[in-house]
Amino acid sequence: MPAHPPTAEILAIGNELLLGEVVDTNTAWLCRFFTGLGGKVQRAVVLPDEVEAIAAELQGALRRAPALVFTTGGLGPTEDDRTLAAVAMATGRPLEEHPEALRMVAARYRELAAAGFVAEPDLTPPRRKMAMLPRGAIPLANPVGAAPGVLLPLERTLLVCLPGVPEEMKAIVQSSLAPHLQARLGRAGFAELRLLTDCGDESRLAPLLGEVGRAFPHVYIKSRARAFGPQVRIQIYLSAAAPTPEEAQALVEEAGRHLEGRLAEAGVSAERLPAM
Amino acid sequence: MPAHPPTAEILAIGNELLLGEVVDTNTAWLCRFFTGLGGKVQRAVVLPDEVEAIAAELQGALRRAPALVFTTGGLGPTEDDRTLAAVAMATGRPLEEHPEALRMVAARYRELAAAGFVAEPDLTPPRRKMAMLPRGAIPLANPVGAAPGVLLPLERTLLVCLPGVPEEMKAIVQSSLAPHLQARLGRAGFAELRLLTDCGDESRLAPLLGEVGRAFPHVYIKSRARAFGPQVRIQIYLSAAAPTPEEAQALVEEAGRHLEGRLAEAGVSAERLPAM
């Protein structure tokens, strides 16, 4: 069993992050996810697409031996996607074509070609590159994009490499990675919901939030004032962890509907916000 | 003169970041800012409010000797604001009450008390704490909040400690820090502007953007498709660097107005987006 709370580190990889062209929202999502499962993220780093820099950072993280290390970014087909080369360097494992990963990539390009998104489904060298995994790795099916995630069980740490596109990253964590996390952490389900009210008075909402919190003790509920110009509106955040993603989703959904009902009775209107 | 391009590292400090409750937008802004001035951010780290973790990371950064190290967060009045204690530990300099910093903090609380935002203007111990700087440091006036920024010139690196609240962080960089950066980098002014068009066809906008780019060779212009549900709209980003913040603002403003005029002639409507 891992230490309690199990710890994690995150490496967010991509030149676009260090140019500031893209704000890294993946790290915050993984932090909420892992905290929700009862873990503790102790450190996160943003790195350029440079094999040596990534490998050095990975070696440092593996020396500290957290239960998990997540990487995001650098799994795609292009030359500057170098995360797995860095994993190979840091762990001394060769990159090898993984038959199951290759089947995943091939199936995805057949779908994309059938839908007209790509001209042909051929496994060109850049596409095959996405199936070159460090020896001992397990591919994680990507329900949204082409590059599989990669799970590499190491002596003291589970290394999880995820794509940088947020929708792909989240989908892999919540589907393909879930059974592995469940085996290791006892739970793998996490769900969240945000409501934006038209009410600016936190003291008016506090009793309702307290009541819903007591009715759903496994749901985390937090309110926060947000400024919209001179107007202040309270935003409510709900999250839940459970053994499976489906259970977590059902829990947060039930608490959210209950809260929406109580808000409506109190004359407060609330709209759901898109996922962060 | 610093190496070209001058390099920087960023340490974003705060438990709320590693819980995922707050998405760190400061790092991306500092990356755009420093890239805009002709520099290169080589690494960014997110750390908890723990003196030892921050001090160890600072020592690592100072060994790599980038031209600048920025920290954000942990400058406030409370016990868990520990950045300067970590700077003291990492650099072997004691924390001392800085008379000019104390005057800044006192003046701010007199203003806040006069405006009714705080009950009294007294320099309580938590408020005095914000004027305890590492020996040799220069306080940077904070035009928005209470905690001064801190500039510590070290042998090979300029260490800049900034508050975590984005508005305070940006205001200090663009006012109080500007003369110091100008002395070291030759320029300190950076400004940006975002326009969201109602047009989804990048090929239609490309000639206009090319024309404005040729008219304003010192303004960086980039377009990016953004999905709004099934609809795609092109967002245009402009940024400029100049010796001073005022010159950069004037440059990006002039290019922005020129672009807005050309878009209007082409029948494309565009709205300005709030600062990132």
Automatic annotation (TrEMBL), chains A, B:
Residues 9-184 form the MoaB/Mog domain. It comes from the Bacteria. Pfam families: MoCF_biosynth (PF00994). CDD domains: cinA (cd00885). Gene3D superfamilies: MoaB/Mog-like domain (3.40.980.10). This is Molybdenum cofactor synthesis domain-containing protein.
